[in-house]
Write a structure and sequence with these properties.
Layout: H1 14-27, E1 32-33, E2 49-53, E3 58-62, E4 68-69, H2 74-86, H3 88-94, H4 107-112, H5 123-130, E5 141-142, E6 145-146, H6 147-160, E7 165-166, H7 168-176, H8 180-191, H9 198-209, E8 211-213, H10 215-226, H11 234-247, H12 253-259, E9 264-266, E10 271-276, E11 280-285, E12 288-289, H13 296-309
Antiparallel strand pairs: 1-12, 2-3, 2-11, 4-8, 5-6, 7-8, 9-10, 10-11
Length: 315
Amino acid sequence: MAVSLVKGLDRLTTKELSAWVQQAKIQAERGQVVARIPLLALADPGWFAVHICCESEQTINGDTERVFPLMSIIKTFSLLYLLEHLGAETVFQWVGVEPSDAPFNSLEQLVADRGRPRNPMINSGAITLADKLPGKDASDTYGGLCLRTQLFCQWLNQLAGCQLKLDEVMLTSVRSTRSPANQAIANYLAEIGHLENPETALDTYEQMCCLSGRVEDLALLGKLLAFENSSLSSQHRRIVNAVMLTCGLYQASAQFAVKIGLPMKSGIGGGLLAIVPGEGAIACYSPALDTVGNPVAGLAFVEALAQKFKLSIFA
Protein backbone atom coordinates (compact mmCIF):
# COMPACT_ATOMS: atom_id res chain seq x y z
CA MET A 1 0.00 0.00 0.00
CA ALA A 2 1.51 3.34 -1.01
CA VAL A 3 1.05 6.14 1.47
CA SER A 4 0.72 9.69 0.17
CA LEU A 5 1.48 11.97 3.05
CA VAL A 6 3.87 14.87 3.04
CA LYS A 7 7.05 16.21 1.48
CA GLY A 8 8.52 13.10 -0.12
CA LEU A 9 6.68 10.65 2.09
CA ASP A 10 4.51 9.76 -0.89
CA ARG A 11 7.29 7.27 -1.66
CA LEU A 12 6.90 5.57 1.70
CA THR A 13 5.43 2.08 1.37
CA THR A 14 4.08 -0.20 4.07
CA LYS A 15 7.10 -2.48 3.50
CA GLU A 16 9.52 0.39 4.12
CA LEU A 17 7.55 1.54 7.13
CA SER A 18 7.61 -1.93 8.65
CA ALA A 19 11.35 -2.19 8.07
CA TRP A 20 11.99 1.11 9.83
CA VAL A 21 9.76 0.07 12.72
CA GLN A 22 11.80 -3.12 13.13
CA GLN A 23 15.04 -1.14 13.07
CA ALA A 24 13.67 1.25 15.65
CA LYS A 25 12.59 -1.61 17.92
CA ILE A 26 16.14 -2.94 17.84
CA GLN A 27 17.33 0.47 19.04
CA ALA A 28 14.92 0.21 21.99
CA GLU A 29 17.27 -2.37 23.51
CA ARG A 30 19.52 0.56 24.45
CA GLY A 31 16.81 2.09 26.65
CA GLN A 32 15.00 1.24 29.85
CA VAL A 33 11.37 1.50 30.91
CA VAL A 34 10.87 4.06 33.68
CA ALA A 35 10.96 2.35 37.07
CA ARG A 36 9.76 5.09 39.44
CA ILE A 37 6.05 4.78 38.60
CA PRO A 38 4.90 1.19 39.26
CA LEU A 39 2.37 0.98 36.43
CA LEU A 40 4.77 2.40 33.85
CA ALA A 41 7.39 -0.10 34.98
CA LEU A 42 5.14 -2.93 33.72
CA ALA A 43 5.40 -1.82 30.07
CA ASP A 44 7.16 -4.09 27.60
CA PRO A 45 10.21 -2.24 26.22
CA GLY A 46 9.57 -3.93 22.86
CA TRP A 47 6.20 -2.26 22.31
CA PHE A 48 6.19 0.17 19.40
CA ALA A 49 3.49 2.03 17.49
CA VAL A 50 3.51 4.84 14.97
CA HIS A 51 0.77 6.96 13.45
CA ILE A 52 1.62 9.47 10.73
CA CYS A 53 -1.03 11.84 9.48
CA CYS A 54 -1.59 14.91 7.35
CA GLU A 55 -4.83 16.63 6.44
CA SER A 56 -6.34 13.72 4.51
CA GLU A 57 -3.97 10.73 4.66
CA GLN A 58 -2.66 8.54 7.44
CA THR A 59 -0.61 5.43 8.06
CA ILE A 60 -0.18 3.29 11.15
CA ASN A 61 1.99 0.42 12.26
CA GLY A 62 2.64 -1.63 15.40
CA ASP A 63 0.87 -1.80 18.76
CA THR A 64 -1.55 0.97 17.86
CA GLU A 65 -4.35 -0.10 20.22
CA ARG A 66 -2.25 0.34 23.35
CA VAL A 67 -3.30 3.22 25.56
CA PHE A 68 -0.58 5.20 27.31
CA PRO A 69 -0.40 8.37 29.42
CA LEU A 70 0.85 11.44 27.60
CA MET A 71 2.91 12.49 30.62
CA SER A 72 5.18 15.39 29.65
CA ILE A 73 3.82 15.63 26.09
CA ILE A 74 0.79 17.30 27.64
CA LYS A 75 3.03 20.26 28.56
CA THR A 76 2.99 21.25 24.90
CA PHE A 77 -0.78 21.54 24.90
CA SER A 78 -1.17 23.18 28.29
CA LEU A 79 1.09 25.91 26.89
CA LEU A 80 -1.11 26.19 23.78
CA TYR A 81 -4.25 26.21 25.92
CA LEU A 82 -3.04 29.03 28.14
CA LEU A 83 -1.73 31.05 25.20
CA GLU A 84 -5.18 30.81 23.63
CA HIS A 85 -7.04 31.69 26.82
CA LEU A 86 -4.73 34.21 28.45
CA GLY A 87 -2.33 35.44 25.76
CA ALA A 88 1.44 35.29 25.36
CA GLU A 89 2.18 38.42 27.39
CA THR A 90 0.49 36.95 30.45
CA VAL A 91 1.89 33.41 30.08
CA PHE A 92 5.47 34.55 29.70
CA GLN A 93 5.27 36.58 32.86
CA TRP A 94 5.25 33.18 34.60
CA VAL A 95 7.73 31.12 32.56
CA GLY A 96 10.57 31.71 30.13
CA VAL A 97 11.43 30.17 26.77
CA GLU A 98 15.10 29.44 27.40
CA PRO A 99 16.53 25.92 26.94
CA SER A 100 17.65 24.05 30.03
CA ASP A 101 20.88 22.13 30.41
CA ALA A 102 19.72 20.50 33.66
CA PRO A 103 17.39 17.50 34.11
CA PHE A 104 13.68 18.15 33.59
CA ASN A 105 12.97 17.94 37.34
CA SER A 106 15.87 20.06 38.57
CA LEU A 107 15.20 22.13 41.69
CA GLU A 108 18.77 23.42 41.68
CA GLN A 109 18.33 25.20 38.37
CA LEU A 110 15.03 26.71 39.48
CA VAL A 111 16.68 28.09 42.61
CA ALA A 112 19.64 29.40 40.62
CA ASP A 113 17.17 31.15 38.30
CA ARG A 114 15.46 32.73 41.33
CA GLY A 115 12.26 30.81 40.87
CA ARG A 116 11.56 31.61 37.22
CA PRO A 117 11.18 28.34 35.27
CA ARG A 118 13.37 28.26 32.18
CA ASN A 119 10.57 27.02 29.92
CA PRO A 120 7.14 25.30 29.98
CA MET A 121 8.57 21.90 28.92
CA ILE A 122 10.38 21.19 32.19
CA ASN A 123 8.53 20.27 35.37
CA SER A 124 8.90 23.60 37.15
CA GLY A 125 7.39 25.40 34.17
CA ALA A 126 4.60 22.89 33.71
CA ILE A 127 3.67 22.90 37.41
CA THR A 128 3.59 26.71 37.33
CA LEU A 129 1.26 26.70 34.33
CA ALA A 130 -0.91 23.94 35.84
CA ASP A 131 -1.61 26.38 38.66
CA LYS A 132 -2.88 28.93 36.14
CA LEU A 133 -5.38 26.75 34.25
CA PRO A 134 -8.85 28.32 34.10
CA GLY A 135 -11.33 26.69 36.46
CA LYS A 136 -11.70 26.08 40.16
CA ASP A 137 -9.43 24.02 42.37
CA ALA A 138 -8.90 20.27 42.58
CA SER A 139 -11.71 19.77 45.08
CA ASP A 140 -14.27 20.41 42.32
CA THR A 141 -14.23 17.10 40.46
CA TYR A 142 -16.03 15.73 37.44
CA GLY A 143 -15.49 12.20 36.19
CA GLY A 144 -12.34 11.86 38.33
CA LEU A 145 -10.88 15.11 37.01
CA CYS A 146 -10.74 18.46 38.73
CA LEU A 147 -12.77 21.04 36.85
CA ARG A 148 -9.74 22.84 35.42
CA THR A 149 -8.31 19.58 34.01
CA GLN A 150 -11.73 18.54 32.76
CA LEU A 151 -12.12 21.81 30.83
CA PHE A 152 -8.63 21.41 29.37
CA CYS A 153 -9.24 17.79 28.28
CA GLN A 154 -12.61 18.68 26.77
CA TRP A 155 -11.04 21.56 24.81
CA LEU A 156 -8.37 19.29 23.35
CA ASN A 157 -10.79 16.52 22.41
CA GLN A 158 -13.20 18.88 20.70
CA LEU A 159 -10.51 20.80 18.86
CA ALA A 160 -8.43 17.82 17.72
CA GLY A 161 -11.11 15.16 17.38
CA CYS A 162 -9.19 12.88 19.72
CA GLN A 163 -10.40 10.82 22.69
CA LEU A 164 -8.17 11.57 25.63
CA LYS A 165 -9.36 10.29 29.02
CA LEU A 166 -7.99 10.33 32.52
CA ASP A 167 -6.37 7.00 33.41
CA GLU A 168 -7.39 6.87 37.07
CA VAL A 169 -5.36 3.70 37.71
CA MET A 170 -2.26 5.42 36.34
CA LEU A 171 -2.99 8.51 38.43
CA THR A 172 -3.19 6.33 41.55
CA SER A 173 0.15 4.79 40.62
CA VAL A 174 1.71 8.24 40.12
CA ARG A 175 0.37 9.46 43.45
CA SER A 176 1.57 6.33 45.27
CA THR A 177 5.16 7.25 44.44
CA ARG A 178 4.86 11.02 44.07
CA SER A 179 8.12 12.49 42.86
CA PRO A 180 10.01 14.14 45.76
CA ALA A 181 11.61 16.44 43.18
CA ASN A 182 8.21 17.64 41.94
CA GLN A 183 7.02 18.15 45.51
CA ALA A 184 10.13 20.18 46.30
CA ILE A 185 9.66 22.27 43.13
CA ALA A 186 6.02 23.01 44.01
CA ASN A 187 6.91 23.91 47.60
CA TYR A 188 9.67 26.26 46.48
CA LEU A 189 7.44 27.95 43.90
CA ALA A 190 4.81 28.47 46.62
CA GLU A 191 7.37 29.82 49.08
CA ILE A 192 8.40 32.58 46.69
CA GLY A 193 4.79 33.37 45.80
CA HIS A 194 4.59 31.86 42.31
CA LEU A 195 1.87 29.32 43.20
CA GLU A 196 -1.36 29.93 45.04
CA ASN A 197 -1.53 26.38 46.42
CA PRO A 198 1.31 23.88 45.83
CA GLU A 199 -0.87 20.83 46.48
CA THR A 200 -3.54 21.96 44.02
CA ALA A 201 -0.93 22.83 41.38
CA LEU A 202 0.84 19.48 41.76
CA ASP A 203 -2.41 17.52 41.76
CA THR A 204 -3.56 19.32 38.60
CA TYR A 205 -0.20 18.66 36.96
CA GLU A 206 -0.39 14.94 37.80
CA GLN A 207 -3.92 14.68 36.42
CA MET A 208 -2.87 16.37 33.20
CA CYS A 209 0.07 13.99 32.81
CA CYS A 210 -2.27 11.00 33.23
CA LEU A 211 -4.52 12.05 30.36
CA SER A 212 -4.18 9.01 28.13
CA GLY A 213 -4.92 7.83 24.62
CA ARG A 214 -3.64 5.83 21.69
CA VAL A 215 -0.93 6.85 19.27
CA GLU A 216 -3.66 8.03 16.88
CA ASP A 217 -4.92 10.49 19.48
CA LEU A 218 -1.40 11.87 19.83
CA ALA A 219 -1.11 12.30 16.05
CA LEU A 220 -4.44 14.14 15.94
CA LEU A 221 -3.17 16.51 18.63
CA GLY A 222 -0.08 17.04 16.51
CA LYS A 223 -2.21 18.18 13.58
CA LEU A 224 -3.25 21.18 15.68
CA LEU A 225 0.34 22.36 15.55
CA ALA A 226 1.12 21.23 12.00
CA PHE A 227 -1.66 23.04 10.15
CA GLU A 228 -3.48 26.36 10.09
CA ASN A 229 -6.63 26.13 12.16
CA SER A 230 -9.35 28.75 12.25
CA SER A 231 -9.86 28.00 15.94
CA LEU A 232 -6.23 28.69 16.90
CA SER A 233 -3.95 31.70 16.64
CA SER A 234 -1.17 31.20 14.09
CA GLN A 235 1.17 33.12 16.36
CA HIS A 236 0.46 30.78 19.26
CA ARG A 237 1.09 27.72 17.08
CA ARG A 238 4.43 29.19 16.00
CA ILE A 239 5.39 29.88 19.61
CA VAL A 240 4.60 26.34 20.70
CA ASN A 241 6.48 24.79 17.78
CA ALA A 242 9.50 26.97 18.51
CA VAL A 243 9.54 26.02 22.21
CA MET A 244 9.19 22.33 21.27
CA LEU A 245 12.18 22.59 18.94
CA THR A 246 14.46 24.22 21.50
CA CYS A 247 13.16 22.67 24.73
CA GLY A 248 10.94 19.64 24.00
CA LEU A 249 13.60 16.96 24.48
CA TYR A 250 15.18 18.52 27.57
CA GLN A 251 19.02 18.64 27.53
CA ALA A 252 19.03 16.73 24.23
CA SER A 253 16.91 19.32 22.41
CA ALA A 254 19.81 21.03 20.64
CA GLN A 255 21.32 17.69 19.62
CA PHE A 256 18.12 16.55 17.93
CA ALA A 257 17.40 19.97 16.44
CA VAL A 258 20.62 19.39 14.49
CA LYS A 259 20.05 15.67 13.75
CA ILE A 260 16.33 15.84 12.95
CA GLY A 261 15.31 19.48 12.74
CA LEU A 262 11.67 19.14 13.79
CA PRO A 263 9.68 20.43 16.77
CA MET A 264 9.31 17.42 19.08
CA LYS A 265 8.07 16.57 22.56
CA SER A 266 8.58 13.39 24.56
CA GLY A 267 6.99 11.86 27.65
CA ILE A 268 8.18 9.22 30.10
CA GLY A 269 5.06 7.22 29.26
CA GLY A 270 6.76 6.40 25.95
CA GLY A 271 5.08 8.91 23.67
CA LEU A 272 6.90 11.08 21.16
CA LEU A 273 5.34 13.72 18.92
CA ALA A 274 7.13 15.29 15.95
CA ILE A 275 5.66 18.16 13.94
CA VAL A 276 6.37 18.82 10.25
CA PRO A 277 4.90 22.35 10.07
CA GLY A 278 2.40 22.76 7.27
CA GLU A 279 2.69 19.11 6.30
CA GLY A 280 1.97 16.56 9.01
CA ALA A 281 2.50 15.01 12.42
CA ILE A 282 4.40 11.86 13.41
CA ALA A 283 3.36 10.19 16.67
CA CYS A 284 5.24 7.25 18.19
CA TYR A 285 4.85 5.08 21.26
CA SER A 286 7.88 3.23 22.62
CA PRO A 287 8.30 2.95 26.41
CA ALA A 288 12.07 2.31 26.58
CA LEU A 289 13.80 5.62 27.43
CA ASP A 290 17.32 6.97 27.24
CA THR A 291 19.09 8.51 30.23
CA VAL A 292 17.59 11.94 29.52
CA GLY A 293 14.04 10.58 29.50
CA ASN A 294 13.32 10.42 25.76
CA PRO A 295 11.96 7.33 23.91
CA VAL A 296 14.88 5.62 22.18
CA ALA A 297 12.96 3.79 19.45
CA GLY A 298 10.69 6.73 18.69
CA LEU A 299 13.63 9.06 18.16
CA ALA A 300 15.40 6.48 15.98
CA PHE A 301 12.29 6.13 13.83
CA VAL A 302 11.71 9.88 13.40
CA GLU A 303 15.39 10.42 12.64
CA ALA A 304 15.29 7.76 9.90
CA LEU A 305 12.23 9.37 8.29
CA ALA A 306 13.54 12.90 8.62
CA GLN A 307 16.84 12.03 6.96
CA LYS A 308 15.29 9.89 4.22
CA PHE A 309 12.66 12.44 3.22
CA LYS A 310 14.51 15.65 4.19
CA LEU A 311 11.86 16.71 6.66
CA SER A 312 14.01 19.15 8.63
CA ILE A 313 12.53 22.62 8.77
CA PHE A 314 16.05 23.86 8.03
CA ALA A 315 16.38 21.93 4.75
